[in-house]
Amino acid sequence: MNSKRVQILSVGSSVPEAVLTNKDIESFLDTSDEWITVRTGIKQRHIIPKGEDISAADLGTQAASQALKKADIEPQDVDGIVCATFTPDYFFPSTACRIQAALGCKGGFAFDISAACAGFVYALTVANNMILCGQAKTMIVVGSEIISKTLDWTDRNSCILFGDGAGAVVLQAKDDLSKGIMASHIESDGNLGDILKLPAWGDKRFMQMRGNEVFKHAVRLMSDTSARVIKQTGIGINDIDLLIPHQANIRIIRAVADSLGFPMEKIIVNLDEYGNTSSASIPIALNEAWDDGLIKEGAKVLFTCLGGGVTVGSALVYF
Fold it and tell me: Where is 144: in which H helix or E strand?
């Protein structure tokens, strides 16, 4: 048995200043604020304006820098950075390498993970395992996305859903086994890859989504993987203090809550302000909950998410 547990020491987030409201979208799409709100729960999203030179690495660096400051850790003490993103600035160098350089981290390693909206939990799981096996002591996990660049702004079924942003956490191994990342589970089903995809080549390099299929599988898989990590820790659903789900759609979140038998008042929901920010959504929501005083000493917090691939993941963290 490992004598250490990996803890989340701090969290930070960053979103563009520019806001695109549902009312704004009414000006160029055949839709309405009411239609979008009822079907998604989204009222606005933060978007990098077209032509403005802000990168995924810029947003990720701002979030990571904020998290490092809160943890009182210097960049040179960071052993590794894992960035979850499906909207990298380049095929290479990785967004993580660019964040590493911008932060001034000396040495260590940096790499990206592509698991779409499940990217944060995938990256958290990988970093946790690397720390436990002795590869690193202190790591940063970042989720950073500029999804607005991938959207067909004439497709009202997809472009209304997404926003840009980044979130980051600082991880470190501690001797205290009573808190930290208690369990996580990730899995994929490549047979479902066509229900949500973004081609890398060709003329149709826009996100493509079969919404009804995504909804059906998201509810089932997010519920199943959540139940799995809860069972691993030997506690009950009523012992969970907060659920922070991927902020995809309010109907998915409500359906997962119903499936798990978990009360909505204990679920962190902020998609009305940010929309779906993919791998950034859980750490952005965690940052808000942390700043609002909801992440108290001893809190048991469950993360769950689903993304294109199809990828799914959950993690249970004691604070």
Answer: strand 138-145
